[in-house]
Specification:
MetI-like fold; 293 residues; 12 helices
């Protein structure tokens, strides 16, 4: 004779396992983000890096206690340069994500609130720009300027606001159908007052989530542009520049100048994406799993 566990017990155990897995993922992501932020904030003021320094006697040393990440092809400590490069990539990602979110929120909110021909025109503009691969468009924009941080920020910001505009517009259209919006309009509130007092606060959580999710994407694009030689000047520490300069070393068998900058691109972006995923689940909870418990 066999005994089967009640169905409710099975679903409750499944929900508990999912919550514990989510908790572990969030804690690991938060720890990685905290370590990244502390490194980029504390290391550069404490240890100054001379971007022009060269020590050919220490050229391409493998990882050791003296140089945990080894040295590059000019004898420079790779760990310190990776931290400086990570700081540049993170600052570019955050600045570009904020700028793109502001543009996308303004366009999406205007399209959803105005409606009519204004909405159709703005969304056709979004569709037109979306039809162009944003990496190619970003290369075209950044190629018009001298290599530097701000051209990369402008390039990423002008090519990554489209998804935010769509998200904000959809949220505004959803809010416009709510009863409290009809009550505000019936009470004599102007369109501007409804947008500022009711629509904009309602879309801010989604816009902030889009900004957080955009930071890893912006970091990847900054690295790609620098790898192509269109981002920061080659002598400045950047994760894309480090990987671009290590291609010859990789072909010669020295793996560390490419591996560690690549890991510093992947790990922080995955950590930020993990925190953003947890935030998204909190904003849009899955009611189905709760009902099954």
């Amino acid at each position: 004779m066999t005994c089967e566990a009640p169905q409710g017990t099975v679903w409750r155990s499944y929900g508990t396992d999912r919550r514990s897995t989510r908790t572990v993922r969030v804690r690991v992501s938060a720890a990685l983000v905290a370590v990244t932020v502390l490194a980029v904030l504390l290391v550069p003021p404490l240890v100054q890096l001379d971007q022009q320094a060269v020590d050919l006697q220490a050229k391409l040393l493998p990882p050791s206690w003296a140089h945990p990440f080894g040295t590059d092809d000019l004898g420079r400590d790779l760990l310190l340069r990776c931290v400086y490069g990570l700081r540049v990539s993170l600052l570019v990602g955050v600045a570009a994500a904020l700028a793109a979110t502001l543009i996308g929120t303004a366009v999406g909110a205007a399209a959803g609130a105005l409606g009519g021909w204004a909405e159709r025109g703005l969304m056709r503009l979004v569709d037109t720009l979306s039809s162009v691969p944003h990496l190619l468009l970003g290369i075209f924009i950044v190629a018009m300027f001298r290599p530097g941080v701000w051209p990369v920020v402008v390039s990423v910001a002008l090519t990554h606001w489209l998804s935010t505009a769509r998200i904000v517009r959809a949220e505004v259209l959803s809010l416009r159908a709510r009863p409290f919006i009809d009550a505000a309009v019936s009470g004599g509130a102007s369109r501007w007052r409804v947008a500022i007092r009711h629509l904009l606060p309602g879309v801010l959580p989604q816009a902030a989530l889009a900004a957080v999710l955009m930071v890893p994407h912006a970091m990847w694009h900054e690295s790609a542009l620098s790898f192509l030689g269109l981002g920061l000047p080659t002598h400045l520490a950047s994760l894309g520049n480090l990987i671009q300069g290590a291609r010859g070393s990789l072909l010669a068998g020295q793996w560390w100048p490419t591996l560690f900058p690549g890991l510093l691109i992947i790990v922080p972006t995955l950590a930020i994406a993990g925190l953003a995923g947890a935030w998204r689940e909190r904003i849009n909870p899955r009611r189905r799993s709760e009902l099954m418990l």
